[in-house]
Write a structure and sequence with these properties.
The protein has two domains: 2-71, no CATH class; 108-188, Nucleic acid-binding proteins (OB fold (Dihydrolipoamide Acetyltransferase, E2P)). The protein is α+β, with helices and mostly antiparallel strands. The strands form two sheets. Strands 4-5-6-8-7 form a five-stranded mixed beta barrel. It has a three-stranded mixed beta sheet with strand order 1-2-3, covered by helices on one side. The longest helix is centred in the N-terminal third of the chain and has 22 residues, at 50-71. It has helices at 13-28, 50-71, 94-103, 142-146, 185-188; strands spanning 2-4, 34-38, 43-47, 110-118, 126-131, 134-140, 155-165, 170-173, 178-184. The chain binds iron/sulfur cluster (SF4). Iron/sulfur cluster is lined by residues 78-80, 83-84, 87, 89-90, 93, 95-96.
């Protein structure tokens, strides 16, 4: 059994070719006695026994059972990681959002996700807010403001892809910015 690889050797290739061996065994009834990883400039070959193939098969079965269990969880268990910053669910996932905030540098210009607490009743063009204990301005065009969800003083709001201005003291909600009110401080502390 030979698995041809076009890239560099990676952790996991050995297990992969072993599982190919299991599949071969179960489909043909013949257990391979050797498996090989063929890279562009090198080949690794080693012997395998039916016992090793059975162990690999049992581990795969356990992994499939675990994956099936995880897929049946509603809501699914959060697994925060580097992908959270691109995840479309990040504003509604407290674990992922928290991970994103704690691992991201504070952006002082450009586009960023921001969490702030509404500190004044929103007007047609914006509201005062606090972020990390500091007062900031959140601004928007009237047309954008009309499409925002209802916001009240004390609401914690997550804004995806807003424009950061004034060295991080002003955040502009643009037409593409997604705005998610979360728990208000009042509700959170009730
Ligand atoms: S934000 Fe939540 S759902 Fe999205 S990748 Fe992160 S942990 Fe998973």
């Amino acid at each position: 059994m030979v698995d041809f690889k076009t890239g560099k050797a990676k952790e996991g290739h050995e297990r992969q070719v072993l599982l190919y061996g299991v599949l071969w065994w179960r489909v043909t009834g013949e257990a391979p006695s050797k498996v090989s990883l063929q890279y562009l400039g090198a080949r690794r070959t080693w012997t395998v026994t039916p016992d090793q193939l059975e162990v690999a098969e049992e581990k795969l079965g356990a992994a499939i059972d675990a994956a099936g269990g995880a897929l049946s969880e509603h809501p699914a268990t959060a697994r925060p990681g580097d992908g959270c910053r691109f995840c479309p669910a990040r504003a509604r996932c407290d674990e992922g959002w928290g991970h994103f905030l704690s691992t991201s540098a504070r952006v002082r210009s450009g586009i960023s996700d921001v969490e702030a607490t509404v500190a004044s009743a929103p007007s047609e063009y914006g509201f005062l807010a606090t972020r990390d204990g500091k007062e900031v301005d959140v601004v928007f065009d009237a047309a954008v403001g009309r499409r925002l969800p209802p916001l009240a003083q004390g609401d914690v709001v997550r804004m995806l892809d807003c424009v950061v201005k004034d060295e991080g003291k002003t955040f502009e909600i643009r037409p593409w910015t997604e705005v998610f009110p979360t728990l208000s401080h009042h509700a959170a502390h009730a």
